[in-house]
Predict the 3D structure of the following.
Amino acid sequence: MIILKSLFIIKGLIQHSNSSYCSNPSLILKSNKLNHQTQRSFGFTIVELLVVIVIIGILAVITIVSYTGITTKANASALQSDLSNATKQLKMFQAENSGYPNTIDCSTTPAANSICLKTSSGNAYDTIKVNNNTNPQTFCLAINKNSTSYRISDSSSPVSGTCINSCLDILNSGESTGDGVYSINPAGAPLQVYCDMTNDGGGWTLVLQNNSTVTTPSPNWNNSINSNNINGTMGANQANFDVLVGLGYWNNLGTQLRAQVGSSPTAISHKAIYTVSLNASNYYALNLSNQNIVLGGTEPGLYASHNGNKFSTYDADHDTYTANCSSMYNNHPWWYHQCWDGNLFAGGSGYQEAAYWTGSTTDYYNHGSIWIK
């Protein structure tokens, strides 16, 4: 109806313009032309129709975009509301039964240790993860609609994503099948990663790896932050690939960082563990604390030289050197200063394409990796 009214308004404006033109004494036409103009006023010309079609198209696009945005917000609001209501029921169940339910069951004959959680129209719970063996007991509940997922835990508000946020989540949920490749959803985005489920308590997500037999990744800034950068073949054999998981995911994977080097992924000679966070608003500056040198007795350059530095790539120079350090060293990304002393992604300018634990001369190894949990 609005478009139809607009059509006649546009026609009226066009006819008014034509009428004004013809009323000018200096431009009065012959009577046959006036008759033609009079006849013409009863219909639309091709030009008028084209104008109307263009305007209708613009209005349609605006309507679709507005409707999509409103629908997306409404879906997100409904998902979050369902999760908040479900949390109240889950905590009531836990108080009455000394533990959270293992399943969601709304059948007429529900299974033992289950709960019925209702959802808004179109929403569906896809995961509930509980751990009643910890103190306090924990749960994670995920819900989705049209490929949009939200999750909530016993100690958090609804956030985007599913309950499998990291390798540690897989381990804690009892779904680990040993070291290897798994699918996780940090920040609500599906991601294939390699998990260490056996060493140092397990649950470690591999975020950076350099094997001397594989070409080291050299992603640009956008890919270094937002993509899973893999060279080689990711699989059960950790020595067959190199990787840099986008830094935008790291804070969602955990708060502990483990750095290590050795002659191979299974022959480690140096290892250190830290508390970690990346400052996304300051070019993902590296923040390490609570150093624990587990193996080798030598402090790594990652902590001694790069802690507090901003991340740099060949197209985004944030180091303190006059030139771009990343460009100087085979375009490899790193937390450069002027430029590096111990870099697991080293190479170029006469240096070994290998993982350096300290310095830039002899302390390098065939394998280097960084893990988070």
